[in-house]
Amino acid sequence: MTWVQANRDYVLDMLLQHVRLSVPAILISVLVAVLLGRIAWRWPRAGTVVLGTASLLYSVPALPLLIVIPVLLGIPLRSGLTLVVALAVYGTALLAGTAADAFRSVDERVREAAEAMGYSRAGLFWRVDLPLAVPVLLSGVRVITVSTVSLVTIGALVGIPSLGNLLTDGFQRDIRAEIVTGVVATMLLAVALDGLLVATGRLVTPWRGNVATGVTT
Amino acid sequence: MGIEFRDVGKTYPDGTVAVTGFSCTVPSHRTLALVGTSGSGKTTLMRMVNRMVEPTTGSVLIDDRDVLGLDKVELRRSIGYVPQAGGLLPHRRVVDNVATVPVLTGTPKRAAREAARGLLELVGLDPALGSRYPAQLSGGQQQRVAVARALAADPNVLLMDEPFGAVDPIVRRGLQDQLLQLQAELGKTIVLVTHDIDEAFRLGDEVVVLKTGGIVAQTGTPQQIMADPADDFVRDFIGSDRAERSLRTVAVDGRSLVVDGDGRPVGVLEG
Amino acid sequence: MTLFGDALAWITDGAHWGGAGGIDHRILQHLLVTFAAVALAALLALPLGLLIGHTGRGRLVVVALAGAVRAVPTLGLLTLLGLALGIGIEAPLLALVALAFPSLLAGAYAGIEAADRGAVDAARALGMSEWQLLTRVEVPLGADVIVGGIRAATLQVVATATLAAYISDTGLGRYLFAGLKSRDYVQMLAGALLVAALALLLDLTMAALQRASRPTTRKVPA
C-alpha cells in the first residue's frame, strides 16, 4: 500500500493510458464484428469463410500480432495505434462468431411477422434484429472487454505505456508491490467495464427479467 | 373487388412445387379459410397476398390491382397480419406492439398508443395490460394482442396464419367467437390459414380444402363441403366418418335429442 | 514489405538452425513446455471437471473461476512468479499450468453437461452404475466439448509460452525479446512469424482432433 501511495500519480496516469487503449479497441471490435456477423448471418457461404478466417486470426498469439501489424500498416511499433489495431483484430476475431450467433438467436417467427407488417429492410435491422440480438451479443462483448483490458498490458513489452508498465518495471526493479498493483488495477478496470456493460445491458433490454412477474390469464 | 388468385403457382428454386394453378376469389368483407395438412401450400398461398412469397406463375390481385405492381413495404403496411403464436415483438410493450404499423406509417407515437389502448378493449383485453411485455401475457392474451395489432391501421384486408393454433381448445373457442363478433362489426376481407377443419368451418364463409402440392380438393361453403364431400380425401379430412360428425336424433321424454355416432348426447333438436 | 522477405531469409538461414539456440531447438522447447503445462493442468482439471459435471455441484465456482482468470493479465502472473521463483523453467511452467486450468475445467464440466439428459436418464434407468454412466454415456457424448476445452487451453498456453521468454530463456519468444533489445526488427519479425505459424498449426491439429471426437449419431432407418 505504501508503494501505491508513493506512486499514485504514476499509477493513475498508466490507468488512464490503459483506458485510452482498451476502450477504442473494444468499440472497433464491436462495430466490425457486428458487421461481419451480419454478413455471416445473411450469406452463410461467405460467412463460413469470414468466420473461418476470424478463428484462424484468433489463434495467432497477441504478441506476434503486435510485431507484424506495424510492418503491414507502416506505423511505428511503439505507437498506441499499433496496439489498438492488434487488439481490435483480436477482439473482432473473437466476437464475429458470437455476433452471427446473436442474429441467429432472433426468433424467426418474430422476424417474419415484422416483415409481414411492413418493416423496411433497414427498419428490420435497427428496430427488430439488432435489439433482439443484444443479449447474446452482450455476452460476447463482455468476454472481449475483459480479455482486451488484460491484453493491453503486453504493450508494455514493446514500449506502449499502460498498466502493463507496472508489471515490466516491477519485474526489472524487483518491486513485487508494483506488479501486484498492476495486476489488481488491471483486473479492477476489467471488472468496472464489465459492470458498466451489465448495467447498460439491463437498461437497453427492459423486456428481459420482467418475464417472470405478474402473469395473469 | 376483394382478393383474386388468378391461376397462381409457386415452384421453389430447388424444384419443390408448393402450389400449381390455383384460382379463387374472395369477395370483399368475406372470409376465405385455406385448410390442409402441412405441405399443402396453404401458407404459401396466403403469403402471396402480401408478397412474403411471390408467385412463379399467375397473379394475385387486390381490388383488381396486381400486388406485384405495388410497393412491397407499402402493401404490407396496408394489410393486417395476424401471425402464429410467438409473432409479437418481444422487446416492445403491448401498446407499442399494437401501435407498430401506425407508427411505421407516421402517426405520432402518443396518438398511436392512445388508439392502441382502445383496440385492446375492442379485442377484450384490459387496456392496463398495454404496459406489459408480451412474455408477461398468456398465450391467448398474446393472440388477442396480435389481432388488435393487425387491426391498428384499419386495413381492408386481414391475413391470419394459424392464429389460434397454439392455444388450448377452450381458449381457442373464445378467440374464434371474438373474431366472429369483430368481423360482424368490421367486415374485413380475410384470408385465414388453418389445419383445423372445425376452425375453417366456424370462421370461413368459403373454405378451400388443399392436398399436398397445393392441389385443390374442394372449394365451397362449409355447408356444401359437409353435405357433399368431393372425394375420399375430403371425406377423410373433414372426418365424415368420425362419431361426432354422424349425428342422429332419438326421442327421449317426448323431445328429440341429438346424439353422436357413439350415442353420446350433444344437444336438443328444436322446433 | 521487404522486412517480411528479410524475416523469411532469417528463418531459412542455415546458421540459425541446429545447436542450443537454434530454431529447431527452440520450437521443440516451446512445444515441450506447452504440452507439459497442458498435461499437468489436465491431470488436475479433467477429473475435477468430470466430477463437477456429473454431480452438478460447484458449477458456479467453475464459471466464476473461468471468468476471473480471463481478467488476470498473464504478464502479471509471469512476472510475479518470475520474481518469486527465479530465472528457471519453474516460474513459466507454473504460470502456464495455472492458465490452462480453468479452460480445461470448464471444458470437462461443459462436456458432461452437454450430454443429452434424456440419454443419461435412460441409461441410469437401465441400471448403469454412476461410474459406467460417466465413462460409457456422458464422456463419449461430451467428448468434443472436452477436447474443445483442451484446445482452448493449448491455444492460450502456446501464446503465453511466448511471453514466458520475458522472464526465462524459454521457447520461440526469445527471438522477439532479443530482437526488441538489439533493435533487430528482422529477428523480432522472424520470431513473430515462427510463433504465429506454430500456434496456427497446433490449433488446426487440435481442431481436427475435436472434430474426430464428435460423437457419431447413427440414424436408424425408420
Automatic annotation (TrEMBL), chain A:
Transmembrane domains' residue ranges: 21-41, 48-75, 81-103, 150-167, 179-199
Gene3D superfamilies according to UniProt: MetI-like
Keywords per UniProt: Membrane, Transmembrane, Transmembrane helix, Transport
GO cellular component: a single term: plasma membrane
Main location, first listed in the record: membrane
InterPro entries found in the cross-reference section: ABC_transp_perm/SBD, MetI-like, MetI-like_sf
PROSITE patterns tied to this protein: ABC_TM1
Subcellular location: Cell membrane; Membrane
Membrane topology: Multi-pass membrane protein
Domain ABC transmembrane type-1, residue spans: 15-197
Residue stretches in coiled coil: none
Top-level taxon in the UniProt lineage: Bacteria
Family statement drawn from the similarity comment of this UniProt entry: Belongs to the binding-protein-dependent transport system permease family.
Protein name according to UniProt: ABC transporter permease
Annotated source species: Nocardioides albidus
Automatic annotation (TrEMBL), chain B:
SMART domains per UniProt: AAA (SM00382)
Domain ABC transporter: 3-238
PROSITE patterns named among the record's database cross-references: ABC_TRANSPORTER_1 (PS00211), ABC_TRANSPORTER_2 (PS50893)
Origin species: Nocardioides albidus
Keywords: ATP-binding, Nucleotide-binding, Transport
GO MF term set: ABC-type quaternary ammonium compound transporting activity; ATP binding; ATP hydrolysis activity
UniProt protein name: ABC-type quaternary amine transporter
Matching InterPro entries: AAA+_ATPase (IPR003593), ABC_osmolyte_uptake_ATP-bind (IPR051921), ABC_transporter-like_ATP-bd (IPR003439), ABC_transporter-like_CS (IPR017871), P-loop_NTPase (IPR027417)
UniProtKB/TrEMBL annotation, chain C:
Main location: membrane
Domain ABC transmembrane type-1 intervals: 27-206
Localization of this protein: Cell membrane; Membrane
GO cellular component: plasma membrane
GO biological process: glycine betaine transport; transmembrane transport
InterPro entries registered for this protein in UniProt: ABC_transp_perm/SBD (IPR051204), MetI-like (IPR000515), MetI-like_sf (IPR035906)
Segments traversing the membrane: 27-53, 60-87, 93-112, 145-168, 188-209
Membrane topology type: Multi-pass membrane protein
Pfam family, one: BPD_transp_1
Keywords of the record: Membrane, Transmembrane, Transmembrane helix, Transport
Family: Belongs to the binding-protein-dependent transport system permease family.
Protein name: ABC transporter permease subunit
